[in-house]
Amino acid sequence: MSKLRIATAIAGIAALGALGACRSAGASYYTLVAQPEDAAATGAVPSFQLDVLPVDVPPDVDRAEIVVRDSTGQVTPVQTRAWIAPLARELRHAFSDDLTRALGGVRDIAGVTPADGMPVFRVKLVVKRFESQLDKRALIEAISTVRDPSKTLPVLVCSHRASEAARPGYAALAEAHQRALTTIAKQIARSIQALQAGSPAACGG
CA within 20 to 30 Å of 17's CA: 46, 66, 122, 192, which one? Predict the structure, then answer.
């Protein structure tokens, strides 16, 4: 290899290293997975299972960086503030945790073999709006679809809107999004419980 090629290769490696250092220097990472509250075990045995499908997110926030919006309508991806996982994956993880907790520990069987003899409710969440206003609020608007495992009832489609005030700082903004997602999960949990009990399909808002 010529000296020119060696020098070019070294320069390229150095540039990549500098780019990685630039993206990671001083970066902070946040999660949408809420810290579970301590609760006494009920001892109830779940009579059904869940299949939580991948969550769809709006293209404008489907990136690693947290995207903040100001009062003028300007949106800015913040290079030093990011979700710990891709937003769609982080949302699905948090939503699954919130939903199974709201349903008393019902198992999410996504990606694994379901238990024999137990019906499976298939749940899809499509996030239409995921808005982050630093020091102000977190807003999530979404549409959920719940499919009855017996396929004797119509597919239940519900719209959801949850807005939570956020204290100053990015950690508080992430916590506000956690609360908003938990609110939506509880609404969907009530709908599933009604379906499981044989009640007419209704949104659990």
Answer: 66
C-alpha neighbours within 13 Å on the C-beta side of residue 165 = 1
> Other C-beta atoms within 10 Å of 12: how many?
10
Separation between Cα atoms, residue 158 and residue 144, nearest integer Å: 5
Instruction: Give the residue among 176, 73, 52 at the shortest CA–CA distance from 126.
Output: 52
SS3 of 28-77: EEECCCCCCCCCCCCCCCCCCEEEECCCECCHHHCCCEEEEECCCCCEEE
CA distance 164 to 155: 29
Q: Please, what are the domains in the chain?
A: 44-196 (3.40.50.10610)
Q: What is the pLDDT of residue 24?
A: 54
Tokens found for residue 36: 């579970």
Cβ(82)–Cβ(30) under 8 Å? yes
State the residue for tokens 């609360």: 179
CA angle (161 as vertex; 99, 90 as ends), nearest 5: 45
Q: Average pLDDT for residues 126-130, to the nearest whole number? A: 98
Backbone phi, then psi, for 44, in 5-degree steps?
-70, 140
Whether 98 and 104 have beta carbons less than 8 Å apart is answered as: no
